[in-house]
Amino acid sequence: MSDNSLMKTLATYDRRWVYLVLFLVVVGPLLQPIGMPISVSPDTEQYYEAISSVEEGDKILFTLNTEFSGYNEIQSGIVATMRVFIEHNTKICVAVGHPEATGIPELVFKQLEEELDANGYVYGEDYVILGYVMPNEASVASMSQDFQGAITQDWLGRSIDDTFLSEINTWEDWDLIADFTTGLATTFLLNHFALRGTPMTVNCIGVMIASQKPYVDSGVYLAILQSMRGGAELEFLTGHPGPGLTAMDAFTFGHYMLLLFILAGNLGYYGYTKQQRGGR
Amino acid sequence: MAEILKNRQLQIAVMALAFLLVFVPYFIEVPALEAASTKLITITAIVNAVTLVLALQSQIRRGLNIVQRRQTGWYFKAYMIITMVLMVVFAFFGRETGPYHWVMYAIVNPLSSVNYGILAFYMASTAARAFRARNTQAMLLLTTGFIVLLYQAPLTGAYAPWLEPIALYFGDTFGMAAGRMFLISVTVGAIVFGVRVLMGKETSVLGVGKEEV
Amino acid sequence: MATPLFQVPLIAEGRFIGLILDILIFALVLYYTSGDKKIYIRRVAGLDAIEEAVGRAAEMGKPVVASYGLGGFTYWTLAGLSILSHVAGLSAKTGTRLIVPTGGSTSSLIVRPVAEEIVKTAYTMEGVPDQYNPDDLPFLSGQQYAYVGGYVGILQRTRPASVIMTGSHWSDAMNIAETSNAVGAITITSGAYISNVAALACASDYILIGEEAPAAGAYLSDDPSQRASIRVQDIFKWIALGCIILGLVLSNMGINIVENLLST
Predict the structure, then answer these.
(1) Domain range spanning residue B25?
(2) Where a domain ends, among B30, B65, B93?
């Protein structure tokens, strides 16, 4: 039985090498973007079509069901989608489903200051931030059935009576729900809005895609935007490169690195481990 | 009064009534019932919001208890209480600008993100360690995973578009089937669990009394 | 697009079949929990892995770390608690130290007293109440990622022989499973969400997928209502399977009756 040191190394390398190499291949392209081409998936095209079909004056519930951690993954989709809504002069109501996300709307609008000015957006008339109003299912159900009873103020304590939200009473009054989620209140929105007929789109993190796709297939969701890659594709479609596209080089290298490690591990398995176990 | 409220049968009766008030209007369109149901849901939302205050009070009380007794890790609890009180003060007096924002963007954002980022490293090391073609099934899994992972890299999608229909096929058939299976199981499980709670079979949901242990 | 087959007066459109199915669930649960029915549930293979894991810890003189999940009183948490009870009983019997990190969400505060009572009762039933140490059930945090930090710290410091992570775990599951592997522990997890299953299947030595955890919980607890739940769910899965197969065959023949019936 030969003791090939290369095969042994491939079979028994320390996992910290994986961490180090992954760190290097991700940080490198982030610091020095290369600008590799990307393709646009059918799901993203469907999503872009869904969000572009909104009309001027449509009332959109823009829900951020994410902590800051998830925001870093889906921020490209959030900003790109918000840009489309602003360019279509829709009325946008931002609600969040996690206390950490109360800081996110400001980050998003800061990146879109130009678009807000160009389209003459005024807080209260065209967009409102409600803050953390979806802590649990009862709150979402209440918003769906009796919005005026559930919500009376925005996140700074100002009354919503003089805003466009005074026209919202039930789930029927919304033209679209755009949900950005790591899995918090999305099921509640699904139960109390989407299944009642309110059009809904979702931008979710990578691990949630498998659980959310059946809803697209069955027509409950209009479309799904898949994680950071979907956000990058949307930035490409809208013609506004941002953090998503910047990260795609690192994304690509990270995937290829992982594939190489899997191959290396299998080579090591067949070249060393299996032989050590007597071919079993 | 407290003894009456602790009565298990009364608790289950209230639960059943609340359930019927929400369940029935969903299926049977009676405007009066729908209005009552909506009001009940709004009341529930308000009560749930108040429980946040209760959670705050409970955490502070428990933390102070641990700090006073100098139990293991008491300094962490002291730190937690101080930061909790500070954030409440900042939220009341500096929400638009100032310390609340600083804490959110300079502390919460990086702390939250780093834990999430670590997941990527762990997933990478897990995949590198666990994906071994030990037998035929594992070989099939590895091949499928390889194709899907290759397609997920945006560069591959640009230069090897022939891979897209194959990768999407795996996701839209096998992946979708698994997703639907979980949906059906979880949904039915949740409904059955709810029925058990309504029937009073799940006493732990209503709180454990010493006499029941 | 599905078209409802008929409209029942007073019943909202598209909800009649849902109502029938809900009533059927009620009736079945009532039926299976009434009387003295003995409902058979096969022993889930994962239970052997759990017993092996605790035995390994006893031999090595190292602790077992077990958790029942984040979240409040859900279907999965109850399964996790049933398995925790079993693990606590085994640990008490073998004299193995059991550590149960608790917390992870705001609703975990409600479940924690139940978990404490379960572990304490298990030690009392085995006749070793003095071995129960309340400090071995630390409340780490009401926030998921802080809970993960504490959990991983416990694993790194105590170097357990086995980590048994059942119930509903969210994105913390991956962190914990991989750290558990790194410290050389046997890792047994349950995948309550499809988002987790793929990663946990790679990271764990043994995984209870989907409803294997509630089934294991029902088997261990011998609670008639839990067993009834599993039976009712099985019946509904057969109904779903029947609808899928029938719908598939008929829709390929151009007959959409199953789809239309389910939309009624």
Answers:
(1) 1-93
(2) B93
Q: Does C255 touch chain B (CB under 8 A)?
A: no
Residues B113 and B147 in one domain: no
pLDDT, tens digit, 9 for 90 and up, residues C102-112? 988 877 878 88
| Confidence at residue C100, expressed as pLDDT on a 0 to 100 scale | 96
pLDDT at B190 exceeding the cut of 90: no
Q: Which of residues 126-185 of B touch C (CB under 8 A)?
A: 126-127, 129-131, 178-179, 181-182, 184-185
pTM of the model: 0.89
Q: Per the CB < 8 Å rule, is A256 touching B124?
A: no
For chain C, percent of residues with pLDDT exceeding 70: 100
For the domain made up of A42-241, the CATH class stated in words is: alpha beta
A69 part of contact set with chain C, CB < 8 Å: yes
| Domain extents in chain A | 5-32+247-276, 42-241
Together in a domain, B13 and B50: yes
Nearest residue on chain A to B177, alpha-carbon basis: A214
Domain limit, last residue, from B103, B130, B157: B130
Residue C33 has pLDDT above 80, yes or no: yes
CA C16/CA A234 separation, integer angstroms: 40
CA distance C40 to chain A (A): 31
Against chain C, the chains showing at least 3 CB pairs within 8 Å are A, B
A96-152 pLDDT, tens per residue? Answer: 999 888 889 989 999 999 999 999 999 999 999 999 999 888 899 999 999 998 999
Q: For residue A19, which residues of chain B lie inside 8 Å, CB to CB?
A: 121, 124-125
C29 lies within 8 A of chain B by CB: yes
Closest Cα in chain B, distance from residue C111 (Å) = 8
